[in-house]
UniProtKB/TrEMBL annotation, chain A:
Entry-linked InterPro entries: ETF_a/b_N, ETF_b, ETF_beta_N, Rossmann-like_a/b/a_fold
Purpose of the protein: The electron transfer flavoprotein serves as a specific electron acceptor for other dehydrogenases. It transfers the electrons to the main respiratory chain via ETF-ubiquinone oxidoreductase (ETF dehydrogenase).
Keywords, sorted A to Z: Electron transport, Transport
Cofactor(s), names only, from the UniProt record: FAD
Record's protein name: Electron transfer flavoprotein subunit beta
Keyword tRNA-binding: no
Similarity comment: family membership: Belongs to the ETF beta-subunit/FixA family.
Start and end residues of each Electron transfer flavoprotein alpha/beta-subunit N-terminal domain: 24-214
Binding partners and assembly: Heterodimer of an alpha and a beta subunit.
Highest taxon in the source lineage: Bacteria
TrEMBL record, chain B:
This protein's record includes keyword Flavoprotein: yes
Described function: The electron transfer flavoprotein serves as a specific electron acceptor for other dehydrogenases. It transfers the electrons to the main respiratory chain via ETF-ubiquinone oxidoreductase (ETF dehydrogenase).
Protein name: Electron transfer flavoprotein subunit alpha/FixB family protein
Provenance organism: Streptomyces ochraceiscleroticus
Electron transfer flavoprotein alpha/beta-subunit N-terminal domain segment(s): 4-183
């Protein structure tokens, strides 16, 4: 039977742009260009490699986000994923991590899955919690933060490089996986891939389709509340010297003045 | 006073510094009750008591080491049910965040990750976070359920505060569904003898400008003269010059030392995300246009192969 892979991809504001907050203290997604989170490209890449190693597999890319999030799906489809699912609903505006995990879990169940692949963290929220939440909600093993991953005979294996140790992990499918940016460069979409992506199917789902009440999600339903967001004052201009033989001495002088030496 | 659960990060009974910082923050909200799991759990008690833990709940079962994350969630949930705390605090490590995330879903609570400060508030603890590569500071709180909050290392001072630290065994039943991910093998990381990157007071980092693994000893020598940890940019890590565990930035470690020295690093947004909150920032770069100079308290435009070794000598001389 076909291996059903669902890759969760997020549409995020470009990190090199001028990211800021909207008036309601949600992330402003209108004024800054968005794109497929770079860290989710690694998830798409590993899913593609797993598919290439399998006899028969199908990759669905899933996103929860505004209309423009479709761009993230198209990018993933142009890399080689087979079809897309876009959960889009006005009531989702302001949903936090716990709420997003609810929506993703329901959409994953509706789509059908053997393997869920996520990125290590989104580049805007940088929480790195969604994959664990999905495993919890779906009631399947979490095999997360992998720098190496493979699937064989219904078993997923991977290497997790932690703070204090490197671990080899193993779980039976179905399972939720997340991969780090150490897992291997993501491929660029080919021209052929970009053309093919335009014809690939993308299913649109609303909260009703997932049996989720509007008050379980959104800004009002959120489990957390941002009360204040202030721009960090620019660092006051420091001293900059050109090294003409004395640079190290001058720097040492500075460090001594600050009591570091 | 209300109790606050503190999840203990330790290695075979040796409590890691971020946990002691958590105790400082926990005391602002209530009475800290520590939850210590796995091999050596009971040995953590005295250090925890010296830093304010009124109680230490311990459990050791082979499952904590044999399976990933989920058994620890079962244990923390058992502690949560036994104590009914005002908040649950965990260190912002990959594991800490994942345990917190699953607990939050289980108990129907909101979660805040990577707090850099914590204050008691009328409607529960208020967490400060540093977001968008540290260009914004936010204050948030959990609005549903018991706040679950993970805190970054170096967010609070370690403060001795003697408390009872009464050790109690925590009864934990690890569910079969929590034994899904087997830890087939675990290879502890070899100690370099240098301070831990996230805990160090001084960090010296090298980037693409270091130009080869064979040149990293130049960075290490300066670090050793200052008693500092060694960091690296992703460019240096990707090139294979330095281990990924030393990477500073968005997808590496986030550091907030008293002094950060960047040598041969341009200062890309993803690198800044991991070091921008450092107290004092110093850069050595031969390109005066490098964006890192926008951040510095002191910058030297010059060749790092001249400046860094000479600085190492200066430091050694001055330290005597
Ligand atoms: C999703 C994502 C996540 C990322 N995560 C991280 C992360 O966690 N950490 C990170 O660091 N990067 C990260 N990056 C990469 C980041 O964008 C930059 O590519 C990287 O930080 C560049 O490293 P660098 O400054 O060492 O190299 P470069 O940008 O190439 O800069 C090298 C600098 O060295 C200087 N130099 C060269 N020779 C000398 C010399 N002899 N003496 C003095 N100066 C010299 C040059 O003038 C230059 O400024 C990430 C990127 C993405 C897309
Ligand atoms: N809105 C979303 N839509 C689809 N996938 C998401 C979404 N948010 C997070 N994810 C997935 O969860 C991972 C971790 O995200 P986070 O916990 O938000 O840092 C990301 O790399 C994605 O794979």
């Amino acid at each position: 039977m076909s291996l059903r892979i669902v890759v969760c991809v997020k549409y995020v504001p470009d990190a090199t742009g001028d990211r800021h907050f909207a008036e309601d203290l949600t992330v402003d997604r209108d004024d800054v260009d968005g794109l497929l989170s770079e860290l989710d490209e690694y998830a798409v890449e590993q899913a593609l490699q797993i598919k290439e190693a399998a006899d028969d597999a199908e990759i669905t890319v899933l996103t929860v986000g505004p209309e423009d999030a479709n761009d993230a799906l198209r990018k993933a489809l142009s890399m080689g994923a087979d079809k897309g699912v876009h959960v889009e609903d006005d009531d989702l505006h302001g949903t936090d991590a716990v709420g997003t995990s609810l929506v993703l879990a329901k959409a994953i169940e509706k789509t059908g899955y053997d393997l869920v692949v996520c990125g290590m963290a989104s580049t805007d929220g940088t929480m790195g919690v969604l994959p664990a939440m999905l495993a919890e909600r779906l009631g399947v093993p979490q095999v997360t933060q992998l720098s190496e991953v493979s699937v064989e005979d219904g078993v997923v294996k991977g290497r997790r490089d932690g703070d204090t140790a490197t671990e080899q992990l193993e779980a039976s499918l179905p399972a939720v996986v997340s991969v780090t940016d150490q897992s291997g460069e993501a491929r660029y979409p080919s021209f052929k891939g970009i053309m093919a992506a335009k014809k690939k199917p993308v299913e649109s789902l609303e909260l009703d389709d997932l049996d989720i009440d509007a008050d379980e999600v959104g800004l009002e339903g959120a489990w957390t509340k941002v009360e204040d967001a202030t721009e960090r004052p620019a660092r006051t201009a420091g001293t900059i010297v050109k090294d003409e033989g004395e640079g190290a001495k001058q720097l040492a002088e500075f460090l001594a003045g600050q009591k570091f030496i | 006073m209300a109790e606050v659960l503190v999840f203990v990060d330790h290695v075979d009974g040796a409590v890691r510094k971020p946990t002691l910082e958590l105790l400082t923050l926990a005391r602002r909200i209530g009475d800290p009750v520590a939850v210590s799991l796995g091999n050596g759990a009971a040995d953590t008690a005295s250090a925890l008591a010296e830093h304010g833990a009124v109680k230490v709940l311990t459990a050791d079962a082979p499952e904590f080491g044999e399976y990933l994350v989920a058994p620890k969630v079962d244990a923390l949930q058992a502690a949560y049910e036994a104590v009914s705390p005002a908040a649950v605090l965990l260190p912002s490590s990959a594991e800490g965040k994942e345990i917190g995330a699953r607990l939050a879903v289980r108990i129907g609570s909101g979660i805040i990750t990577d707090a850099v400060d914590l204050e008691a508030g009328d409607e529960g603890p208020v967490a400060t976070q540093s977001v968008f590569a540290a260009s914004f500071t936010t204050k948030s709180r959990v609005s549903k359920g018991t706040p679950v909050i993970t805190v970054k290392p170096n967010s609070a001072p370690v403060e001795p505060a003697a408390a009872a630290g009464t050790v109690e065994a925590l009864a934990v039943t690890v569910a079969d569904s929590s034994k899904g991910t087997k830890v087939v093998s675990r290879t502890p990381r070899e100690s370099t003898g240098r301070p831990d990157l996230t805990e160090a007071a001084i960090v010296v980092s090298g980037g693409r400008g270091v130009n080869g693994a064979e040149n990293f000893p130049v960075i290490e020598a300066l670090a050793d003269s200052l008693g500092a940890a060694v960091g690296a940019s992703r460019a240096a890590v990707d090139a294979g010059w330095y281990p990924h565990t030393n990477q500073v930035g968005q997808t590496g470690k986030s550091v907030s030392p008293q002094l950060y020295i960047a040598a041969g690093i341009s200062g890309a947004i993803q690198h800044r995300a991991g070091m921008q909150t450092s107290k004092t920032i110093v850069a050595i770069n031969k390109d005066e246009e490098a964006p890192i100079f926008d951040l510095v308290d002191y910058g030297v435009v010059g060749d790092l192969f001249n400046v860094v070794p000479a600085l190492t000598d200066e430091v050694k001389t001055r330290k005597g």
